[in-house]
Predict the 3D structure of the following.
Amino acid sequence: MPVRFQLNGVLIEEDDVSPSMTVLDYLREMKGLKGTKEGCAEGDCGACTIAIQSALGRVKSVNACLMLVPQLDGMSVTTVEGLSGPDEAIHPVQQAIVDHHAAQCGFCTPGFVMALHAFTQTGEALTYDSVHEAIAGNLCRCTGYRPIVDAAVSLGSKAEKLIPPAIEQTDYYTDGNEDFFAPRSLDQLVALKSEHPDAFILAGGTDLGMRASKDRQPYGQVISTANVMELNQIERDESSVMFGAAVNYTRALPMLEEIAPSFALLVRRIGSRQIRNLGTIGGNICNASPIGDTPPCLIALDAVMIAHGSSGRREISADDFFTDYRKTALGPDEILEAIRIPVPSPDLIFRAYKVSKRFDQDISAVVGAYALKIENGIVASVRIAFGGMAATPARAPACEAALMGRSWSMETAMVAGVALSEDFTPLTDFRASQDYRTRVASNLLQRLYLDTTQPDVPVEVMAL
Ligand SMILES: Cc1cc2nc3c(=O)[nH]c(=O)nc-3n(C[C@H](O)[C@H](O)[C@H](O)COP(=O)(O)OP(=O)(O)OC[C@H]3O[C@@H](n4cnc5c(N)ncnc54)[C@H](O)[C@@H]3O)c2cc1C
Ligand code: FES
Ligand code: FES
C-alpha cells in the first residue's frame, strides 16, 4: 500500500519514493516546496521546521531534515506554503513577523513561522518564557530574537483549531528496493524483529535520521515503532510509572513533572521542541550514548527496562542495561518495550543537573543524577549516576560510599566530589576536557548540597 498523507490540504499517495528519503528532500526536490529550508541537516537550526498532525489531533513542529517520508503516513503536513488560506491571505503568524520587523534575510523565517504556528495550536499561553522555549530550536543569524519573540507574544489568541485528518495508514511500504514496516501491535513488532534481525528499529528518528540526512546512507529495512499501540502507552499505579518505549518526550513530560520535577526540567533541555516532539525516551536509552541525558536519571531512580524478544519479556535493571560504549543488554531479537520508573517516595530527594555549553539545544558535557534520603541529617540511602564521565552512563560507587551514613554537610559533599576520581577517568573531547569533566562533576556535589539545604541560594544562571 502507498504512503498516504495530506500535504497542505491535498491528499498525496506515494508508492515509488525511497523509504530512506528525508521529508526535507521530498518537499524541496519532489514537490518544489522550497520555503522549507535546509540549514544544518541535523536538527540543530530549525530552518526545515514543518507542522504535522496525526489522527490523535496534536499539531506539532518537527524537523523535516530528520524525518523519513514513510513517517508521514496518516499525517496532515503543513509547510509554510500551506499557511495562507485559499484567498492567499497572509497568515496571522506571518503578519505578526511583518508587523514587528522580525525578519531580515528571511532564511530562518519560514522555520520560525512554522514553529510558532505549531506552538499556537498547543493551547499553551504565549508568554516570553513559553515562546523562548518553543523557538529554542530555531536559529536566526541576523534579526535578533527580541522582535521575533515580540511578534510571537503579540499573537494572543489568534490561533485557529485544526481538525485532525482521517487517513488510512499502511503497515508496510516498499519502493521495490527497501522496506519500511509500521506494525500496529507488540506481537507484530517482535515477530518482525525476529524475521529481520538486521533491520533498523526506528522510533522518532532524531538519532537514526542522521543516517539519511548527514551520511546519505540508505536503511534497507526499517521497522518503525511509532504505531505500536503498546509502546505508546503511559501507565501509572501506586508504585511505578510505565512509559512505552515509543512515547515521545512531549507526551512524557507531564507525568515526569508529577513524579520527578527535576527529571522533567532536564528533559525540557533535550534538544528543542521539534526534537522532543519526535524523540523518545526509548530511543535515548537504546542509542546508548555515554552523553544521553535520560540514562543517568533512570539509573539513579532505579528504573527497569522491559525487553521483549521471541522468547518473551524480561526485565533488566537500568544499572545493567548499558554494557559497553553504545552497547546495550538487548539481544539481537529483542526490542525495548517499556521503561518502568518507581514513583519516588515523598522523602526521596531527586536532582538531575546537565552541564553543557548552551542552556538549550545542546548535548551534555556532563549529566549528574542523584537520588538520596536524609534522615536526621544523615545520608540514609543514595544512588548517583553520571553521563559523560565514562564509555557508558554509570553509577558512582566510591562517591556513594563517601556519602552513605555521613552527616549531610558541605564537607561531606566535597569529600564525595573528590571520591568521584576513583569512579571515573573521563575522556577529553571537543565538548570538554578530562580535567573540566572531573572538576565539574565534583563541584556538582556542592551544588547538590546547596540545592537541597539552602533553597534561597541560586544554583543556576537563568535568563531574566
Ligand atoms: C538537534 C538534536 C539535539 C539533541 N539533543 C539531545 C539532548 O539534549 N540530550 C540527549 O540526550 N539527546 C539529544 N539528542 C539525541 C536524540 O534526540 C535522543 O537520543 C532521542 O531520545 C532519540 O530518540 P528517538 O526516538 O529519536 O530515537 P531513534 O533515532 O529513532 O533511535 C535511536 C536508537 O535507538 C534504537 N531504538 C529506538 N527505539 C527502540 C526500541 N523500542 N527498541 C530497540 N531499539 C530502539 C534505534 O534503533 C536507534 O539505534 C539530540 C538530537 C538532535 C538531532
Ligand atoms: S536543516 Fe537545520 S534543523 Fe533541519
Ligand atoms: S533573518 Fe536572517 S537568519 Fe534570521
Summary: The mean pLDDT is 95. Residues 175-227 form a domain with the Uridine Diphospho-n-acetylenolpyruvylglucosamine Reductase; domain 2 fold (CATH 3.30.43.10).
